[in-house]
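Please decode residue identities from the backbone states below.
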């Protein structure tokens, strides 16, 4: 009986050590970046391929001009980007044709790609105009987190959706997030004394989740990856509370107010920004 208890004690000690190390790393990184303003070193620009002019991007602090902005970070996505954009824009155009009040923009952030990603993106700008499709060039690779942040801070929508360039999530699923945000907004408006308040003024977020695929994923991952995943979920539970089942799904929607509060404060440039925003 002593042997199993010893193994259990070792595993628990290892898990606690990992959790403590992760928390310490997060605290140290947050402290280091608190006074580090290097994140503003790459001013965002977008190009109009027809005029070949580089124009300063709008700001998240400006009033919304569109109903929805879709933020697509891309790094060396020459072969996957085209199909994802075609599916996305076809859906947006069909919806705009049915609902004249629906307006949109797709913002592709080229995070220093060295393949033909930029050319693919600009082909869509030429086809659908710079009013509906825009490309932000970061010049060099900063990381997915910084690409998302730049797109959010220079969007024009009341609702802002981040999604991956590989089309991993069905674009129609955005309606699920949108409906959840509207449901919360209705409650918030009822409790507000300002009748003119808009959905973009209420800080609300809705996150996509792949937790329903958890059992299948657990069956295909190595045991040590599952162990590390459980440790990370414990950190999320301790820092963000219960109810967050998937931090890494790249399908998240924000109202303009929520995006302004979140992305003006996020500093992480890697995929870790999905966790930091939570």
């Amino acid at each position: 009986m002593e042997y199993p208890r010893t193994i259990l004690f070792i595993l628990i000690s290892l898990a606690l050590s990992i959790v403590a190390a992760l928390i310490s790393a997060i605290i140290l990184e947050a402290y280091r970046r608190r006074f580090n303003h290097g994140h503003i070193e790459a001013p965002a620009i977008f190009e109009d391929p027809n005029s070949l002019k580089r124009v300063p991007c709008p700001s998240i602090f400006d009033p919304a001009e569109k109903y929805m902005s879709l933020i697509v970070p891309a790094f060396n996505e020459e072969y996957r980007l085209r199909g994802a954009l075609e599916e996305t824009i076809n859906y947006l155009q069909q919806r705009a044709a049915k609902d004249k009040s629906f307006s949109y923009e797709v913002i592709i952030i080229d995070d220093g790609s060295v393949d033909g990603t930029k050319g693919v993106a600009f082909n869509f700008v030429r086809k659908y105009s710079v009013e509906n499709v825009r490309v932000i060039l970061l010049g060099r690779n900063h990381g997915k987190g910084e690409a998302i942040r730049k797109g959010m801070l220079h969007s024009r929508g009341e609702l802002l959706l981040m999604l991956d360039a590989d089309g991993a999530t069905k674009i129609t699923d955005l309606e699920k997030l949108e409906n959840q945000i509207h449901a919360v907004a209705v409650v918030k408006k009822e409790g507000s004394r300002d009748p003119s308040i808009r959905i973009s003024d209420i800080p609300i977020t809705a996150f996509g989740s792949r937790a329903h695929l958890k059992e299948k994923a657990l069956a295909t991952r190595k045991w040590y990856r599952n162990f590390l995943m459980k440790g990370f979920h414990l950190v999320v539970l301790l820092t963000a509370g219960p109810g967050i089942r998937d931090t890494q799904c790249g399908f998240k929607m924000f109202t303009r107010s929520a995006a302004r509060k979140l992305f003006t404060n996020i500093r992480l440039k890697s995929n870790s920004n999905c966790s930091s925003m939570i």
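Observation: The radius of gyration is 21 Å.
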